[in-house]
Amino acid sequence: MKKIIALCGVMLLCFQAGIAQKFALIDMEYILKNIPAYEMTNEQLSQVSKQWQNEVEAIQQEAQNMYKAYQSDLVFLSAEMKTKREEAIVQKEQDAQELKRKYFGAEGELYKKRESLMKPIQDEIYTAVKEISESNNYQLVIDRASAMSVIFASPKIDISNEVLRKLGYSK
Questions:
Q1: Which of 15, 96, 124, 159 could tie 59 with a disulfide, CB 3.0–4.6 Å?
Q2: Cα dihedral value 30, 126, 159, 36, nearest 10
Q3: What's the CA gap between 98 and 108, in Å, rounded?
Q4: pLDDT digits (tens, 9 = 90+) for 10-66
């Protein structure tokens, strides 16, 4: 009876080991920092963002100047002129908000530009991770940088450097 129980126990352990899944980690921030194209893309996006921000601020400054001029001329203006100037100021402020939304909104130009510039880099990384995962039989690859629930992970299962080597940026 003891032999049967022991045999069943050994078989259960062997079965568990046979279906064990392999996991790996990557650190996307580390990988991206080691890809020069990513740094250049970030710099390019930063420059475009600053340029667009300056455009928005220029229009907002115009609106402020119009309001200051309106304030100083207020006593000299007729009711009709006051209304026209107020409408012009409001229109200028709306123009600034619309331009800001166009450039920096959820589906704005900056988002589209970032998407178009980053997608090829992300696709290249994804392809490398997929190839490494398939060749090493990993069932799951977790991004250490974005997985907030990963409290500790052994450096032995981190394949970030392997991904960089696969991309041609050996470390």
A1: 96
A2: -30
A3: 11
A4: 555 555 554 566 788 888 889 999 999 999 999 999 999 999 999 999 999 999 999
Phi-psi region of 108 (alpha: psi -120 to 50; beta: other; left: phi over 0): beta
- The CB-side HSE value for 40 (13 A sphere, CA atoms) comes to 5
Residue 141 CB contacts under 8 Å (≥ 6 apart), including other chains: 23, 24, 25, 26, 129, 133, 159
For residues 164 and 31, the answer to whether their CB atoms sit within 8 Å is yes
Contacts of 55 (CB under 8 A, 6+ apart): 99, 103
Angle, helix 36-73 to helix 79-104, in steps of 10 degrees:
170
pLDDT in tens, 100-143: 999 998 889 999 999 999 999 999 998 998 888 888 888 888 88
